[in-house]
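Bug #77: duplicate submission created two jobs. Keeping one. Sequence:
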Amino acid sequence: MSAEFGDLLLHNDVRWLSKGRVLERFWNLREDVADILQSLNTKKAAEFFTFIQDSDKVVLLAFLVDIMGHINTLNLSLQGADKTVVELQEKCYAFETKLSIFINDLEGGKMLHFSNLKRCMTADQQACFQLISTFLHHLKVEFDERFKDFRKLKPVFLFIADPFIVQPDGEWTSVTASIFPNSNSLLQMEAADFQASHVLKVKLNEVGIAIFWSKFVPDSQYPAAKKLAISMLTTFGSTYSCECVFSTMNTIKTKHRSVITDQNLRNAMRIALTGYSSNYAAIMKSKQQLHTLY
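Kept job's structure:
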């Protein structure tokens, strides 16, 4: 392997969603990496070899592999099409709870959620233990701070997710008043009507919240509730859609298609990104009818 790499130490800029996997792969290959570094006669290789042989550094690396694996799992759950802000905030709240579990697990000494750390950490590495514990506490505070604005809207999200389980005159109407002033009384009446409708309750369970509010809740009967729901559900909860656009553009506009016009690029991207499926049978039928006229 040393002959393959020569005396070059490779550096790559790794994308966020791949960082956890790269760390995991490096952890699994760390002994082979150490052998390669030891065989290379360079100053930089010697520095890396010293690092990888340091037991405290290895413990911290093991912790990073474990925690990045958990964060990557969260990150992947936030990706994908048709994810609403209601669903995404639930994932983030769940991870905050998991962070408390991680802290208790670590400080209790069980390390059920830190399998790599458990295998290499010893009782005399208290400095590493304290550093890891402090990091987890700071991470929990960071999550709490980052999502505190969404937490204020949690009662509203609960109503949108399931309008049949909230109190019609509950806290959610007071929170909504900060978004749509003077809407409390109307929302309370509409919520009471909602909860009396067995048909709407069945439909919500069948189609999910996005389609339910957009297609099956009548504007005429529930104008305030629908306005509230649509305003929340159309909020961008993730950059996933934007990243898909850039990825698609990079796939379409390669060096081999350097003369593609802006209009053709837009058309190609619309075809690639839209979920719309053309009714080719109807299009062909209309063309045939047009042909018979002539």
